[in-house]
Amino acid sequence: MSNFSIIARATILKSFVFDVERRTIRSTQGTFTREVVTHPGAVAVIAVNGNNEVALLSQYRATLDLENLEIPAGTCDISGEQTLATAQRELLEEIGGYSNRWTLLSTFYNSPGWTDQVTLVYLAEEVTVGAASPEGPEELAMTVQWKSVDDVKAILSGSDAVDGTAAIGLYAWLNHQS
Predict the structure, then answer these.
(1) The whole model's pTM is what?
(2) Beta bridge partners of residue 34, listed in sequence order
(3) Residue 58: how many CB atoms within 10 A of its CB?
(4) pLDDT at residue 16 tops 80
(5) With left for phi above 0 and alpha for psi between -120 and 50, is residue 34 left, alpha or beta?
(6) Beta strands in 39-154 (DSSP E)
(7) Which of 74, 78, 100, 119 lies in the 20 to 30 Å Cα band around 39?
(8) If we measure between CA atoms, which residue out of 3, 68, 52, 59 comes closest to residue 32?
(9) How far apart are the first and last CA of the chain?
(10) Mind listing the pLDDT tens digit for each residue in 56-115?
């Protein structure tokens, strides 16, 4: 049992993707407040084609002001939708990808020091690609790159910063193969 308990919550910001709450917490040392980003959760997909190559997306991110290499992913923003259905929808939307072989690879907290977001990483194997239906200016401009196992290992061991969700998903995929 924890020595901490939330005794009050107040929403201080509502946005399209997340909200921010000010929480009052009681502990054995007294009370204190924390601002917490609340998020409905997300899915990410390691999409592997018949050549054992992984789909990586080069997508502009305003937070970084650069093109970032990522895996297909999205927010669980449809009430009642199962996370696998969300992953399937995101793969179709972002790269036009289909798969009949899905496995849950990993579940992780994105950054528990400031958000309650949880991301589930799925493996989609034998992905075939049709027409994508990207949404928004960043997705409309993104490109898909298919990377081999050796390419993925080089990206993960390189000196450039790597997207955290992509890194966790790619490491889980490499581990799943062994």
Answers:
(1) 0.93
(2) 23
(3) 14
(4) yes
(5) beta
(6) 42-47, 54-61, 66-70, 73-75, 97-98, 101-109, 118-125, 128-129, 143-147
(7) 100
(8) 3
(9) 38
(10) 999 999 999 999 999 999 999 999 999 999 999 999 999 999 999 999 999 999 999 999
